[in-house]
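Quick one: structure for this chain?
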Amino acid sequence: MITLELSGGPSVALALGKHPALGRPKGSRARYRSVQKMWHDTPDRALALQDLALAEAGPLWVMESLGLGWPRRPGTPATAIASSAHPAELESQLGEILPGPLRPIASLTGRLQRLKVIHEDAVLDLRITTGTLTAIDADGDGAETRPFARAEITGPLDAALSLARALAADVAVTPSLISLPYEAQMLGQVKLKARAAPELAPEMPTEAALGVLLFGVITTFLMRLSQIAPGNGAEPVHQARVALRRLRALMLAFRPILRDAEDALKPPLAALKAVLGPARDWDVFLSETVEPLAGTLEEADTVTDWLRRAATARRDAAYVALVRFLDGAAYRDLAWRLAGLALGEGWRHADPTLSEDEAGTTIGPFAVKCIESRWKKTARPARDLAALPASEIHDLRIRCKKLRYQAEVFVDVLPSKSGRRLIKRLAEAQETMGLLNDGTVATDLVRSLRPSAAEAAEQSLAAEAIGLIRGHGVGHARDSREAVIASWRKLVKQGPY
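Got it. Here's what it folds into:
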């Protein structure tokens, strides 16, 4: 049994309660009850710093987790650690004295609808809560407020995830990434740092290690995507694309265990990549090609001015397409699939026929074998790179990225300090190959800006811009080829360990 938590805007609560997947008879009236909650902490947030939240909910005092400790499971609610009718009894359950003095820091006022749902032959408990969170200042007065809506589904994992996806197909609900107690804390301008994931140990069971890694990578990925919005700048897009690459490298490394679960995620991840990539490519083109190039020319250069305007328009269009995708049902379904993967759907103990050689009894031997296999697919003699076309250098760079991300995943369990040395050498080779590839990418992007049917002046500016970017790229390529060969020779000479 598991409890999933769905998060959405205040308007989704009514749509959730009427969704056909719940099987409610037409004309039936929804029943609600009021809910109130008050969170307490010391002025210096002593409980929050321990990943704890003390809530007064009617006659009960409940100690909850803020959700910043470990494990962090995307799409699951804050967990209750202890509860009692009196704080003194709570201290007895916890085995420690509560810090003081305590004061109210935030409150919740709302209503709860509870339903029994039959879905895929399983009985599920659905709780939909909507209302208002209020920060309470040092004088005990209400300060900033925020409406909220959350829903919880309790039942078998497969059925609960299936219902969550069915609801998300029509209603804008995604896996919760921040617990309700922490959201209430944040209203008071309190920001706390999430605790780092535990380090892997070579003797850790492979499935347990995969669970730790998936929790961290998927939570980070979904959080980065949630930060992409108009006005938030380029950094969330950059970090989301990096997180996507790390996730794909992780899934590739654990393909012997994930099997069908990995295959099922390939198409939706490819669809996300198709809208995430262009937004990032145009950001890089503007910041790392157009602006530096414009800085070397006269201030009033008509070609670079046209180039900047045209590229900005294309970048803005790419952002619109990305935000539209993230607001749509396809992304919500992907988010729930990823939450399910982190929770073990489709792979944890799913295939008892796996041999020890395939699954690995512990993560240490599994990691070594994985890195050695990826190295064999990546390494090639340095002399081959002298005449290698730019497109094949780019392919080699992609293989280096996959190997680097997998080395970063397994760095704690690789022999001695070899993993960190390998990561450093791969980063150097990847950087030099990136400089070589930048000119090709920039030329392809500027060619896509050529007007299909426009005035002669526009056509002329586009032609000049293409020539300018091509010349800039050729110069970089000439300087970078030798650096690529030198960094590659250093990489292959030392091997993976």
